[in-house]
Amino acid sequence: MPDLTTTYVGLKLRSPLVASSSPLCQNIGNILQMEDAGIAAVVLHSLFEEQILIESQALDRHLSAAEESYAESLSYFPDLRRYNIGPDEYVEHIRRAKQAVDIPVIGSLNGVSTGGWIRYARLIEEAGADALELNIYHLPTDPSIDGATVEQQYVELVRHIKASVRIPVAVKLGPYFSSIPNMAAKLDEAGADALVLFNRFYQPDFDLESLEVVPNLVLSNSSELLARLHWVGILYGRIRADMAITGGVHTAQDVLKCMMAGAKVAMMTSALLRQGIDYAARLEEDLIRWMEEHEYESIRQMQGSMSLERVADPAAFQRANYMRVLSSYELRPRPGVQ
Amino acid sequence: MQRRKVTIDGNEAAAYVAHKVSEVIAIYPITPSSPMGEWSDQWSAEGRPNIWGTVPTVIEMQSEAGAAAALHGAIQAGALAATFTSAQGLLLKIPTMYKVAGELTPTVFHIAARTVATHALSIFCDHSDIMAVRQTGFAILASNSVQEVMDQALIATAASLESRIPFVHFFDGFRTTHEVNKIEELTDDDLRAMIDDELVRRHRERAMTPDRPVLRGTSQNPDHFFQAREAANPYYLACPTIVQNAMDKFAALTGRQYHLFDYVGAPDAERVIVLMGSSAETAHETVDYLVERGERVGLVKVRLFRPFSVEHFIKALPPTVKAIAVLDRTKEPGAVGEPLYLDVVTALHEGYDGRPLPRVIGGRYGLSSKEFTPAMVKAVFDELAKPNPKNHFTVGINDDVTHTSLEWDPEFSTEDPSTVRCLFYGLGADGTVGANKNSIKIIGEETDNYAQGYFVYDSKKAGAVTVSHLRFGPKPIRSTYLISKANFIACHQFVFLERFDVLKAAVPGAVFLLNSPYPADQVWDHIPRNIQEQIIRKRLKFYVIDGYEVAKKTGMGQRINTIMQTCFFAISGVLPREEAIQKIKDAIRYTYGRRGEAVVQKNFAAVDAALDHLHEVHYPEQITGPEPPPTVSPKAPEFVQKIVAPIIRGEGDSIPVSAMPPDGTFPTGTAAWEKRNIALEVPVWDENLCIQCGKCVIVCPHATIRSKVYDKSALVDPPPTFKAVPARWKEFKDMLYTLQVAVEDCTGCALCVAACPVKDKTNVKRRAINMEPQIPLREQERANWDYFLKLPNVDRDLLKPSVIKDTQLFQPLFEFSGACAGCGETPYVKLVTQLFGDRAIIGNATGCSSIYGGNLPTTPYTVDEEGRGPTWNNSLFEDCAEFSLGFRLAIDQHNRHARDLLARLAPQIGEELVKALLEADQSTEAGIRAQRERVKLLKERLAGIDSPEARRLMLVADYLVKKSVWAFGGDGWAYDIGYGGLDHVLSTGRNINILVLDTEVYSNTGGQMSKATPRGAVAKFAAGGKPTGKKDLAMMALQYGNVYVGRVAMGYNDAHTVKTFLEAEAHDGPSIIIAYCHCIAHGYDMVYGLDQQKAAVQSGHFPLFRYDPALLAQGKNPFQLDSKAPSIPLEKYAYNETRFTMLARSDPEAARRLLEAAQRDAQLRFKLYEHMASMPLNGSPKAELAKEEKHA
Fold first, then answer.
1. Which residues contact A60 (CB under 8 A, 6 or more apart)?
2. Mean pLDDT of chain B
C-alpha cells in the first residue's frame, strides 16, 4: 500500500485530499461525511467581516426605521436580548466541528478592516481551529490605487495576523499579480505558513432581459488546474511556505499532478458538489491504484518532482511555450548537462 | 435588599409589579396600555419569575373581551391574574367585570386611562373609560405619578386579595404611562411583605376544581336574586379600611404614606379643589406655590374612588373649607354633573354632619390630554373666590358657544427656577426621542438630580415631528404639564423653523441649538424673520451644528441623535463634558451593543466628531430673514384656514368651540392643502423613455404621481418646464400624455422607480423615472402640478377598467395621507377610489387605515370635479363589517323606497323615464353615468310636482344610482377582533365588499402578532417566532359558496389585482379581498416592497386565487388559481425581512425548525389550492340552467 500521508502547515494528514472552503462545510453532517470518505482535513466556509458588518447595520437600520415617531407604535419589534451578529455563530461552529471529527479543522476568514481581521483571527484560534486560512479577496476597482499599495496591504495584514495568533496561517491568493513569485516571496517573508493557489472569483453575469448584473457561480473543471500547476511548479523550492492547490482538482490524475508540481495538499469543492462527498473515497482508491501501477511508494516521494527546479524541460514553464523555433531541439537543454 | 433607583415610565412600573405578582396575564393590545403587555411577554420570554418562582403565562387574545374572559377563567381556576387595557378595551370587558365582582374574585386590571371614542377617536387621556366601569362592582384606585403607579400596583393587589374585591388600578394614559421619571424600585422582599401567602392560599381554596367541585354562574329568579346580590355588602363596607391598612403597611416598609384621600395645602384652607389622576401633581405644585404666598387653598387627591368612603372623604377636608371645586376628567352629557362631582355633592350631603355645607361647583378639564396647567388651577381657585362661581364649567378651552369656560393667565407659572427645562424638536426615527430617554437615564442615575421626560408625537407616520420635554433639577418634579418656559431649545430639523414657532417657549437668555446645513457664519440670513426676531429679543445663546454632515461622515445615515445629544450635554453643562461623553458611550453600548460592534463604533465616532462641528453664532441685531411660507395656500377654503392650518402650526389649542363641528363631521379633500415638503428626493419623469404603462401610478402610496391623457387643445400656456408627449394609446391618437409628480406631497419612497419596467438602453441605472433632489425642483413643479390638476380628465366611459394603463388615468380620490413612506396598504385603498370612488361609502376599522384615513388635521379622501367622492367613517375596531353592512341595509332600503315611489308617481313623472330608471343597467361606468343623468332629469321633474310623495322621492332619488359599499380594515380586525362580525356579514349574502389589508401583524399599535402572522415571524407576543401557521381567512370565507373571495398581491400581478377588485364589486353579494401588504413592521427597506410581494407569491407563502360564484352558474369551477407553483424556496422570501432574520440571529435552531415547517405549510397549501382549482363539478348545472330557461 503506498503511503498517502503528507504534512501541511505542520499538520500530519493521512492523505493530500482536503475539502476547500465552501458552504458544504456549514453543515456538521457534511463534515462528518467528509471524514468518513477519507478526506484528510476541512477548510470551513469563510467568515466574512463584511457580511457581519452589513448584517449588523441592516439590523440596526431596520429595527430603528420607525422607532419613536408615532405614538401608537413606538417600536415595531420585541426587544430580543441577543442577536448572533458577529462571529459567535462561526466560532460555535468551529467548536462543534472539532468535537465531531478527528481530522484537522481549518478556519477561513475574509476580512475588510485590519482590526476586524485580527479580532476574528483570534476568535477562530480560541475556538480551537487547527489553522487559519486567510481569504484575501480584494477586488480593486479604484484606478488611483496602484498594485504596490495593494500588495503591501496584503503583506502587512499577514504580518499583523502572524503576530496575533499562534496557529499556522495559510494565505489564499488570486492569480492577478504582476509577479506571483515576488508576491509569494513577500508573503513567505511575512510569515505565511502556506500559500493556497488560486482563489476563484465569482464573476457576475449580465441578464439581458432584466438588464441587471446578477451574481454567477460556475463550478470549476480540470482545465483550470493548469495555471495552478504552472505557478506551484515555479515556486516550489523557492519559498519556505507549504503550498496547496485549489480549483480544478477533480480526479486522481489532478491530485497527482498537484503533488508533482510541489503542492502538499490538493483541495476540492466542485468535485464534491457535483459528485457527492463520498466521491472522495473513490478518488482515493484511484490514487492508490495509479501509484501501485506506477510503483510509487509515497506521495512524499513525488512531491515537487516535476517542478521548475527538477523538470528536465523547464521551457514548458517559461516563455518558451510561446515561441516557435524551427527545430524544437534548440530550446531544450542538452541531456546530461546539469 | 437595597432598593435601587430606576428611570422608567408608568407602563413599565405597572408591568414590573403585575408580572411579579401574577401567574396568568391575558391581554390585547390597545394604545397606550400595549407596552404593559409587551413588557410582561418579554420578561416571561426571558424566564423572569414571579415572587413564587414561576414564570407567568402571557397570552394575547382576539380582543379585550376575550382577554377578560380568559382572565376570568384563570382566576376561577385559582390563578393570580392581571390584565392591561384602555378605553374601548375596558368597555369590552364590562360584562366580565360584573361577573368577576359578583363572584368576589381578586384580580387587578391596570388601566392606562384613555378617552372613549365619541364624535372622534382619541388615543389620549381622560377618565371616560374609568367612569364607564364605576358601576361594575370593581374597586377603583388612582395613581398620579410613575412612583405611585409602582407603589399602588402592589397596594391594589394586596387589597384585592384581602377584600376579595377585584380592582381597577388606573393612571393617566401618556401623561403617566409614557412619562419617564426617576423612582425607587420595589424589591421582591417588598412584594412578598405585602402579599399575604395566607390570602393566596384562600384564593386557591376557592378555586373551581373537580377535587372540591362547586357550581357558579347559576341562573336565579326574582324570589332570591336580590337577596343574594345584597349578601356581598359586608365586603364592600370592609374594603376602604382594608385599602388604608394596606397603604399603612406599605408606608411602614417604604416611608411613602398614601391615604384614601390625601389632602395637601393650607391647614386652614377655605378653597379646596378635589381631583384624581396626574393633574393632582400639577395642582399639588400650584397649591404649594400659592400657600407659600399666603393663600388659603388646598387640594384633596382622590385615590380610592370606589368604594367611595364618605367618612374618609369628609375627614380629609379641612374644617375651614367654604368652597369646593370638583374637577372631572370626563364628560357625561345629560347628567346633572360629572361623576366625581356628583359623588362629592352626595358625600357632603350625607356625611357633613349638620354643619353648613360648603359651596360645591363642578368642572371639566383635560379631555383627551388637553393640557391642565398651574395657570388653570389658579383660575379655578380664583373662580372659587367669587361670590357666584360658575358651576359645570370647563377649563383649558375657549367655549364661545355655551360659555362654560373659565379664563386663565397663560403667563402664570409655578416652574421651579432651579429646574432646567429643555425642549427638543426632532424628526420621527432620527433618534431624538431615544437619545433623550438615554439622557434622562444618565442624568437621573448618574447625578443627584431628579429627571422627567415626556414626549409628544405626531399624527403622521412619515416625516413626523417629535417634541421631547425634559426637566431635571435638585427637587422632585411634579410638573405633569408641557414645558412652556424652556431654558434650552434644540431644533433638529432646519425646515421646522418655517413650519411652526419653535422658539415660542424660549425664556430670555435661553440656549438655542439648531441642526443647520448652513455654517455659523452664513446661517443667519436663512432663518425666517419671526425666529430671528425672537432670537434677538430674547437674547438667546445660539449654536449650530451640521448634524447630517457629521452623520454622513461617520456612517450614521439619517440618525443624528447621538450627535445632538453630545452637543446638549456639552452646552447644558449638567455633567462635566468628558464624563457626559463617557456616559453617552456607555448608553450607546447598552442600547445598541446587541446589534453588533459596527453599530456601536459608528455611534462612538459620531459622538467624538460632534463637538468639533458645534459652533456658536454671533448674530447681528438686524432682521434679515425671509418670511416663513404660509401654512396653507391663501386660496384654501375657510374650514382649512380656520381649523386645519392652526393645527398644522401647532396652535390647535387656540381653536374655539364654535369653530368645531358638534357631531364629528368634517369635510373631505383637505389633505391637498397641506404641502409637507418632506421628501429629500422626488421622482423626475424622463418622458422619452416612458412607455406610459401606469405601473408607477398604481403603486404610489400617496397619489403623488399621476397620469393624464388629454386633447392637444387643452394645453394652453403651460408653465415653461411642463412636460407632455403624444399619448401611446390606439384609441387616443393625437392626444397628449403627462406624468406629473406632486413634489411637495411626495414622501420620497421611490416605489414608483422600483416599479418602472423601463431601463435606459444607454445606461441601465436610469429608468423612465429617477430620483433627484427636491429643493431645486420645488418651485417649478409646484406650478406644473397646479397646471396638471386643471387639465381635463379623459372620459371614463372610454377607458377599459381591466387595463392597467387605462385605470391609472382614473382620478384617485384618496391622496396625501399620513401613511408611512412606502406603505403597502394605501395603493389598494387608492385603487378602490379610482375605480368606484364617486359612488363609494366606506366603513373603516380602527388601525393604520383609520389613522391615515382620518387623523386630523387633514382628510385624504377627496372629491372629483363633480363634487362626488368617497364618504368614510371609522366606528370602532371590532364592528367594521357590521357597520358597513348597516350602510348597505339603509341604501337598499332607500333604493326600494325610491323604486316604490317611482312606480306610484309614474304618471306624473313620465312612464318612459320611470321605466328607464327602474330597468337601468348599471354594470358599467357608462351605465352609471346614464342613470345619474336620468336622476337629474327626475329631480327636475319632481321639482314641479307638489306632493309629499314627490318630496320624499326627491330625498331618496340619488339612491337609484348604484352605490359601492366597502368595509376596509387590517388583519388585526379581520382575523381577530372583528372576525365574528365579519363572518356574520359574509353569511348574510348582502352586497358588500370587504377589503382586508393584510400586513400580517398589528401594524398600527406597534407589531403585535395576529392570526395572520406567518409561522416563524417574530412579533410582539411571538418573540420566539410565531409557532403556528397563518390562518387561511380566504378558505373560511369561501365555504359559504356565495361569497366572492380574492387573494391579491399588487407586486406580483397588478392586472390581476385590478381584475379582482372589479369582479368583487360586480358580484351581487358579499365579496372579500385579502390583499398582501408590505409594511414597515416587516423590517426591510420598503423600496423593495413590490419585490417582496412578488417573492411572497413565488415562494408559495401567499398564493393567489379568485373564487367567483358567478362561474358556478355557468357550470364552471368557481375556484381559479392565479399564481404558479412555488418556484423559489421560502427562505428566499423570508430572509429578506428582519421579522424572520432576527429569529435566525437570536435562536438559529428555532428559526430553522420553523422555516422548515413553514416551507411545508406553503407546499401543502398550494397543493390544496391546486386540488380545488382542478376539481370537476358534480352534475351538470349547465344542463339544469338550459332546462330552466326553456320553461321561463
1. B592, B595, B596, B599
2. 95
- Residues ≥6 apart with Cβ < 8 Å to A141: none
Interface confidence, given as ipTM, is 0.84
Q: How many CB atoms neighbour CB A54 within 10 A?
A: 13
Point out the residue among A57, A76, A83 whose CB comes nearest to the CB of B1081: A76
Burial of B598 (0-12, 13-18, 19+ CB in 10 A): buried
Query: From B463, which residue of chain A is nearest by alpha-carbon distance?
Result: A69
Identify whether B391 is a catalytic site residue. Answer: no
Q: What is d(CA B189, CA B2) in angstroms, rounded to the nearest whole number?
A: 10
Write a three-state SS string for B334-394. CCCCCHHHHHHHHHHHHHCCCCCCCEEEEEEECHHHCCCCHHHHHHHHHHHHCCCCCCCEE
Query: What pLDDT, on the 0 to 100 scale, is given for residue A146?
Result: 87
Torsion sign over Cα B517, B519, B520, B525 = negative
Confidence (pTM): 0.92
- Contact A293/B at CB under 8 A: no
- Let me know if B114 is a catalytic residue: yes
Give backbone dihedrals phi and psi of B953, rounded to 5 degrees, phi first.
-65, -35
Which residue is closest to B1019 within chain A, CA to CA?
A77
Residue-wise pLDDT for A236-269, tens only, equals 999 999 999 999 999 999 999 999 999 999 999 9
Q: What is the 3-state secondary structure (H, E, C) of B736-790?
A: EEEEEECCCCCCCCCHHHHHCCCEECCEEEEECEEEEECHHHHHHHHHHHHHHHH
Beta strands (DSSP E) in B139-232 are 139-142, 167-172, 180-184
Nearest CB among A53, A70, A86 relative to B428 is that of A70
The count of other CB atoms within 10 Å of the CB of residue B757 is 11
* Kind plus residue range of the DSSP H or E element containing B1032: none
DSSP 3-state assignment of B18?
helix
Tell me the pLDDT tens digit for each residue of B487-521: 999 999 998 999 889 999 999 999 999 999 999 99
**Min Cα–Cα distance to chain B from A40, Å:** 29
Are B457 and A71 inside 8 Å of each other by CB? yes
Q: How many whole angstroms separate alpha carbon B113 and alpha carbon B106?
A: 21
Among partner residues B461, B764, B1142, which is closest to A77 by beta-carbon distance? B1142
For residue A67, which residues of chain B lie inside 8 Å, CB to CB?
Answer: 429, 431, 433-434
B1009 contact residues in A (CB cutoff 8 A): none
Check CB contact under 8 Å for A83 and B595. Answer: yes
Buried b (16+ CB within 10 A) or exposed e, A258-289: bbbbbbbbbbbbbbbeeeebebbeebbeebbe
3-state SS class at B219:
coil
Cβ count within 10 A of residue B590: 12
> DSSP letter at B43?
H
